[in-house]
Amino acid sequence: MSSPDGGDGQRRFAPDFLTELFQNPLDPGYADAAARKARGEGRTGATKRIVSGISALTVAALGFLLVVAYQQTTAAEPARSQARETLIDQVQNRRTETAELQARADRLRAEVAGLREKQLGGAAVARMRDLEAETGLAPVRGSGARVTVGDGPMPVDPLTGERKSEARVRDTDLQVATNALWAAGAEAVAVNGQRLTATSTIRQAGEAILVDFRPVTTPYQVVAIGPDNLAGKFRDGAAGRFFRALNTKFGISYDVAELNDVTLDAATGPNLRQASPSVPPSSAPSPSSKASKGG
Protein backbone atom coordinates (compact mmCIF):
# COMPACT_ATOMS: atom_id res chain seq x y z
CA MET A 1 0.00 0.00 0.00
CA SER A 2 1.28 3.36 -0.91
CA SER A 3 1.25 6.29 1.40
CA PRO A 4 -1.35 9.01 0.92
CA ASP A 5 1.26 11.36 -0.43
CA GLY A 6 2.35 8.88 -3.03
CA GLY A 7 5.60 7.83 -1.33
CA ASP A 8 7.13 4.44 -0.95
CA GLY A 9 4.90 3.31 1.89
CA GLN A 10 7.24 4.24 4.77
CA ARG A 11 6.03 7.00 7.11
CA ARG A 12 8.54 9.73 7.79
CA PHE A 13 8.13 12.09 10.76
CA ALA A 14 10.01 15.34 11.31
CA PRO A 15 11.72 15.39 14.74
CA ASP A 16 9.63 17.24 17.31
CA PHE A 17 10.89 20.21 19.32
CA LEU A 18 11.96 18.27 22.44
CA THR A 19 13.90 15.72 20.39
CA GLU A 20 15.66 18.51 18.52
CA LEU A 21 16.41 20.30 21.80
CA PHE A 22 18.00 17.27 23.41
CA GLN A 23 19.96 16.27 20.31
CA ASN A 24 21.21 19.82 19.60
CA PRO A 25 21.24 21.66 22.93
CA LEU A 26 23.56 24.46 21.73
CA ASP A 27 22.52 26.90 19.05
CA PRO A 28 25.08 27.79 16.38
CA GLY A 29 26.22 30.90 18.23
CA TYR A 30 27.16 28.96 21.35
CA ALA A 31 28.77 26.29 19.21
CA ASP A 32 30.90 28.86 17.35
CA ALA A 33 31.98 30.49 20.62
CA ALA A 34 32.98 27.12 22.05
CA ALA A 35 34.91 26.30 18.89
CA ARG A 36 36.81 29.61 18.98
CA LYS A 37 37.67 29.08 22.61
CA ALA A 38 38.97 25.60 21.82
CA ARG A 39 41.15 27.02 19.02
CA GLY A 40 42.55 29.68 21.36
CA GLU A 41 40.81 32.54 19.54
CA GLY A 42 39.54 34.32 22.66
CA ARG A 43 39.20 38.00 23.29
CA THR A 44 42.04 40.20 22.23
CA GLY A 45 44.08 42.22 24.68
CA ALA A 46 42.32 45.46 23.73
CA THR A 47 38.91 43.92 24.33
CA LYS A 48 39.99 42.63 27.72
CA ARG A 49 41.29 46.05 28.69
CA ILE A 50 38.01 47.72 27.68
CA VAL A 51 35.95 45.21 29.65
CA SER A 52 38.21 45.60 32.67
CA GLY A 53 37.97 49.39 32.47
CA ILE A 54 34.18 49.33 32.29
CA SER A 55 34.03 46.97 35.26
CA ALA A 56 36.36 49.20 37.28
CA LEU A 57 34.28 52.29 36.46
CA THR A 58 31.08 50.48 37.47
CA VAL A 59 32.55 49.40 40.79
CA ALA A 60 33.88 52.90 41.44
CA ALA A 61 30.48 54.46 40.67
CA LEU A 62 28.71 52.04 42.99
CA GLY A 63 31.22 52.74 45.73
CA PHE A 64 30.77 56.49 45.29
CA LEU A 65 26.99 56.18 45.52
CA LEU A 66 27.26 54.08 48.67
CA VAL A 67 29.61 56.60 50.28
CA VAL A 68 27.27 59.50 49.43
CA ALA A 69 24.24 57.62 50.79
CA TYR A 70 26.09 56.80 54.00
CA GLN A 71 27.20 60.41 54.48
CA GLN A 72 23.66 61.69 53.94
CA THR A 73 22.28 59.17 56.42
CA THR A 74 24.82 60.01 59.11
CA ALA A 75 24.36 63.75 58.51
CA ALA A 76 20.56 63.51 58.95
CA GLU A 77 20.73 61.28 62.03
CA PRO A 78 21.35 64.11 64.58
CA ALA A 79 18.32 66.02 63.26
CA ARG A 80 16.12 62.92 63.49
CA SER A 81 17.36 62.17 66.99
CA GLN A 82 16.70 65.75 68.07
CA ALA A 83 13.19 65.66 66.60
CA ARG A 84 12.51 62.34 68.33
CA GLU A 85 13.69 63.67 71.68
CA THR A 86 11.58 66.81 71.23
CA LEU A 87 8.48 64.75 70.54
CA ILE A 88 9.16 62.55 73.58
CA ASP A 89 9.51 65.63 75.78
CA GLN A 90 6.27 67.06 74.41
CA VAL A 91 4.41 63.82 75.08
CA GLN A 92 5.73 63.64 78.65
CA ASN A 93 4.81 67.28 79.26
CA ARG A 94 1.29 66.71 77.93
CA ARG A 95 0.90 63.67 80.15
CA THR A 96 2.01 65.67 83.18
CA GLU A 97 -0.41 68.47 82.32
CA THR A 98 -3.22 65.97 81.82
CA ALA A 99 -2.55 64.37 85.21
CA GLU A 100 -2.53 67.79 86.90
CA LEU A 101 -5.78 68.81 85.23
CA GLN A 102 -7.36 65.50 86.18
CA ALA A 103 -6.34 65.98 89.83
CA ARG A 104 -7.76 69.52 89.79
CA ALA A 105 -11.00 68.25 88.27
CA ASP A 106 -11.27 65.61 91.00
CA ARG A 107 -10.80 68.26 93.70
CA LEU A 108 -13.42 70.52 92.16
CA ARG A 109 -15.81 67.60 91.80
CA ALA A 110 -15.39 66.81 95.49
CA GLU A 111 -16.05 70.45 96.40
CA VAL A 112 -19.19 70.52 94.26
CA ALA A 113 -20.42 67.31 95.88
CA GLY A 114 -19.88 68.79 99.34
CA LEU A 115 -21.75 71.99 98.51
CA ARG A 116 -24.58 70.03 96.94
CA GLU A 117 -25.03 67.86 100.01
CA LYS A 118 -25.26 70.98 102.16
CA GLN A 119 -28.05 72.38 100.02
CA LEU A 120 -30.07 69.17 99.68
CA GLY A 121 -31.81 67.13 102.32
CA GLY A 122 -30.88 63.64 103.47
CA ALA A 123 -33.39 61.78 101.28
CA ALA A 124 -32.47 63.79 98.21
CA VAL A 125 -28.77 63.16 98.79
CA ALA A 126 -29.34 59.40 99.15
CA ARG A 127 -31.40 59.31 95.96
CA MET A 128 -28.78 61.35 94.14
CA ARG A 129 -25.99 59.00 95.26
CA ASP A 130 -27.93 55.99 94.01
CA LEU A 131 -28.40 57.64 90.63
CA GLU A 132 -24.73 58.60 90.45
CA ALA A 133 -23.68 55.03 91.20
CA GLU A 134 -25.99 53.69 88.50
CA THR A 135 -24.79 56.19 85.92
CA GLY A 136 -21.09 55.81 86.78
CA LEU A 137 -20.65 59.29 88.26
CA ALA A 138 -19.85 57.99 91.75
CA PRO A 139 -17.42 55.31 93.01
CA VAL A 140 -18.89 51.93 93.88
CA ARG A 141 -17.66 49.01 95.95
CA GLY A 142 -18.65 45.37 96.13
CA SER A 143 -17.97 41.86 94.85
CA GLY A 144 -17.71 40.94 91.22
CA ALA A 145 -15.41 39.52 88.55
CA ARG A 146 -12.26 40.38 86.61
CA VAL A 147 -11.70 39.35 82.99
CA THR A 148 -8.09 39.69 81.80
CA VAL A 149 -7.10 39.41 78.14
CA GLY A 150 -3.72 40.17 76.57
CA ASP A 151 -1.96 40.15 73.23
CA GLY A 152 -0.53 36.85 72.09
CA PRO A 153 2.83 36.23 70.38
CA MET A 154 3.27 38.27 67.20
CA PRO A 155 6.19 36.93 65.15
CA VAL A 156 7.78 39.00 62.39
CA ASP A 157 6.83 38.09 58.83
CA PRO A 158 10.10 37.07 57.10
CA LEU A 159 8.88 38.44 53.75
CA THR A 160 7.48 41.85 54.73
CA GLY A 161 9.32 42.42 58.01
CA GLU A 162 6.04 43.37 59.70
CA ARG A 163 4.59 41.81 62.82
CA LYS A 164 1.55 39.65 62.35
CA SER A 165 -1.42 41.23 64.12
CA GLU A 166 -3.78 38.25 64.36
CA ALA A 167 -2.87 37.77 68.04
CA ARG A 168 -3.49 41.41 68.97
CA VAL A 169 -6.51 42.17 71.15
CA ARG A 170 -8.94 44.42 69.30
CA ASP A 171 -11.56 46.91 70.40
CA THR A 172 -14.30 44.50 69.37
CA ASP A 173 -12.88 41.89 71.77
CA LEU A 174 -13.18 44.30 74.70
CA GLN A 175 -16.68 45.20 73.55
CA VAL A 176 -17.60 41.52 73.68
CA ALA A 177 -16.25 41.24 77.23
CA THR A 178 -18.01 44.36 78.56
CA ASN A 179 -21.33 43.57 76.90
CA ALA A 180 -21.25 40.02 78.27
CA LEU A 181 -20.63 41.31 81.80
CA TRP A 182 -23.52 43.77 81.51
CA ALA A 183 -25.75 40.97 80.25
CA ALA A 184 -24.68 38.74 83.17
CA GLY A 185 -25.94 41.31 85.68
CA ALA A 186 -23.01 43.67 86.23
CA GLU A 187 -23.89 46.96 87.92
CA ALA A 188 -20.62 48.75 87.13
CA VAL A 189 -17.80 47.99 84.65
CA ALA A 190 -14.33 49.48 84.15
CA VAL A 191 -11.59 48.77 81.58
CA ASN A 192 -8.08 49.30 82.94
CA GLY A 193 -9.56 51.61 85.55
CA GLN A 194 -11.69 53.59 83.08
CA ARG A 195 -15.29 53.47 84.32
CA LEU A 196 -17.90 52.89 81.64
CA THR A 197 -21.15 54.82 81.36
CA ALA A 198 -24.07 54.86 78.95
CA THR A 199 -22.11 57.15 76.62
CA SER A 200 -18.73 55.38 76.83
CA THR A 201 -16.95 54.24 73.69
CA ILE A 202 -14.32 51.57 73.04
CA ARG A 203 -12.59 52.27 69.75
CA GLN A 204 -9.48 51.28 67.82
CA ALA A 205 -7.00 53.98 66.76
CA GLY A 206 -4.24 52.30 64.78
CA GLU A 207 -2.65 49.78 67.12
CA ALA A 208 -4.02 51.49 70.26
CA ILE A 209 -7.37 50.97 71.95
CA LEU A 210 -9.15 54.03 73.35
CA VAL A 211 -11.73 53.92 76.14
CA ASP A 212 -13.55 57.24 76.18
CA PHE A 213 -10.65 58.63 74.08
CA ARG A 214 -8.07 57.53 76.66
CA PRO A 215 -5.51 54.91 75.60
CA VAL A 216 -5.35 51.58 77.42
CA THR A 217 -2.62 48.98 76.99
CA THR A 218 -2.31 45.22 77.20
CA PRO A 219 -3.02 43.28 79.33
CA TYR A 220 -6.58 44.56 79.49
CA GLN A 221 -8.46 44.10 82.76
CA VAL A 222 -12.23 44.36 82.58
CA VAL A 223 -13.48 44.60 86.17
CA ALA A 224 -17.17 44.46 87.02
CA ILE A 225 -19.24 44.64 90.21
CA GLY A 226 -22.29 42.43 90.25
CA PRO A 227 -23.81 39.20 91.58
CA ASP A 228 -21.69 36.51 93.21
CA ASN A 229 -21.93 34.20 90.18
CA LEU A 230 -20.84 36.89 87.71
CA ALA A 231 -17.51 35.20 86.92
CA GLY A 232 -19.17 31.82 86.42
CA LYS A 233 -21.80 33.23 84.07
CA PHE A 234 -19.13 34.89 81.97
CA ARG A 235 -16.91 31.80 81.91
CA ASP A 236 -19.73 29.46 80.87
CA GLY A 237 -21.37 31.84 78.41
CA ALA A 238 -20.75 32.67 74.77
CA ALA A 239 -18.11 35.25 75.64
CA GLY A 240 -16.09 32.69 77.60
CA ARG A 241 -16.17 30.29 74.66
CA PHE A 242 -15.17 33.12 72.34
CA PHE A 243 -12.06 34.02 74.34
CA ARG A 244 -11.08 30.38 74.81
CA ALA A 245 -11.17 30.02 71.03
CA LEU A 246 -8.93 33.08 70.65
CA ASN A 247 -6.53 31.59 73.18
CA THR A 248 -6.39 28.27 71.35
CA LYS A 249 -6.08 29.69 67.83
CA PHE A 250 -3.95 32.82 68.30
CA GLY A 251 -2.41 32.49 71.77
CA ILE A 252 -4.30 35.49 73.22
CA SER A 253 -4.11 35.25 77.01
CA TYR A 254 -7.42 34.93 78.84
CA ASP A 255 -8.39 34.57 82.50
CA VAL A 256 -11.52 35.03 84.63
CA ALA A 257 -11.36 35.51 88.40
CA GLU A 258 -13.87 36.18 91.16
CA LEU A 259 -13.43 39.30 93.29
CA ASN A 260 -14.75 39.46 96.84
CA ASP A 261 -14.12 43.17 97.39
CA VAL A 262 -13.31 45.70 94.68
CA THR A 263 -13.78 49.44 94.27
CA LEU A 264 -14.40 51.17 90.95
CA ASP A 265 -13.70 54.88 90.69
CA ALA A 266 -16.20 57.29 89.24
CA ALA A 267 -16.17 58.03 85.55
CA THR A 268 -15.12 61.35 84.17
CA GLY A 269 -18.04 63.74 84.48
CA PRO A 270 -19.98 64.46 81.29
CA ASN A 271 -19.64 67.86 79.68
CA LEU A 272 -22.45 70.32 80.39
CA ARG A 273 -24.14 70.97 77.05
CA GLN A 274 -27.11 73.12 78.02
CA ALA A 275 -28.44 74.76 81.20
CA SER A 276 -31.43 77.00 81.77
CA PRO A 277 -32.99 78.40 84.95
CA SER A 278 -36.07 76.61 86.18
CA VAL A 279 -39.31 78.61 86.22
CA PRO A 280 -41.08 78.66 89.62
CA PRO A 281 -44.61 77.20 89.43
CA SER A 282 -46.19 80.42 90.72
CA SER A 283 -44.77 82.53 87.90
CA ALA A 284 -45.91 80.23 85.12
CA PRO A 285 -49.01 81.68 83.34
CA SER A 286 -52.14 79.56 83.52
CA PRO A 287 -54.36 78.79 80.52
CA SER A 288 -57.23 80.78 82.07
CA SER A 289 -55.11 83.93 82.38
CA LYS A 290 -54.02 83.57 78.76
CA ALA A 291 -57.66 83.27 77.71
CA SER A 292 -58.68 86.37 79.68
CA LYS A 293 -55.84 88.37 78.15
CA GLY A 294 -56.83 87.23 74.73
CA GLY A 295 -60.42 88.35 75.34
Automatic annotation (TrEMBL):
What keywords are annotated for this sequence in UniProt?
Answer: Coiled coil
Question: Which intervals carry biased composition (Low complexity)?
Answer: 285-295
Domain of life, source organism: Bacteria
Q: Cellular component per GO? A: plasma membrane
User: Where is region (Disordered) located?
Assistant: 142-167, 268-295
Q: Which residues form a coiled coil?
A: 91-118
Could you tell me which InterPro entries the record lists for this protein?
DUF881 (IPR010273)
Q: Can you tell me which family this protein belongs to? A: Belongs to the UPF0749 family.
**What is the designated name of this protein?**
Membrane protein
* Originating species: Actinoplanes auranticolor
